[in-house]
Design a protein that fits this description.
alpha/beta, Rossmann fold, 11 helices
Length: 272
Amino acid sequence: MHLNVYTQGKGFPILCLHGHPGSGSSLCVFTDHLSKRFQTFGPDLRGYGKSRFNKNFVMTDHLTDLEALLNRFKIEKCLVLGWSLGGILAMELALRLPQRVSGLILVATAARPRGNHPPITWQDNLYTGIAALLSVVNPNWQWNINTFGKRSLFRYLIQQHTPTAYSYIARDAIPAFLQTSDKATRALYSAIKAGYNKVGDLNQIQCPSLVLAGSQDRHITMESSLETSQHLPNSQFYRYANTAHLFPWEIPHQVLRDIDCWLKDNPETIQF
């Protein structure tokens, strides 16, 4: 499939893969920063964003699409950053094309993803809808954050209910959610239901990796991210206190600073 791709900057290529729901543009918290020194590629995965696809597909189709993308842009080697589902695909891509992946930055993800999200009630959905709509109008409205945001499903996605986090949710999360197809949802949930687990294959990934996790993540637990890091041969693990699955939107400056430090310590990941 010919994926829609957002490209920025010049230099060593960094492939940035979004989660579910998501889109290439929803990774701007990373690409706006990294594109100052590198060339970033943020594709809309099949069934997400502007990469419309109306037939059923399976998770491995994403890998076929991404390999075609690398060929299309003549990318021989790249660093891959993946958030949630994107991190799973990043590891799969490193297993499939080890010679073309120089390093991995894995954000809120795991090779054996486990969650502890509580059951969702109708009140959760109601408050989430109201909080989302009001955030689009004014993400800095503290009354909305306190009245609806903290009672909505956002309480499982973030721990720090700040205007910064709600600005990202309003600008990036809500449009991405509306553009995610039911086919994409079905492909992901089918893989999870089948017991997705690639921990046993991680020893094949020899490139440097950075694994970042929020301590209160209910969608992919910090413990499952730690397990992934422990099975990667050349990995560094960071845990962020008082954050959840969307921690790059909660503490963007700290996350980007840690990524910059890791890149400085691992220059082989960004060399042609």
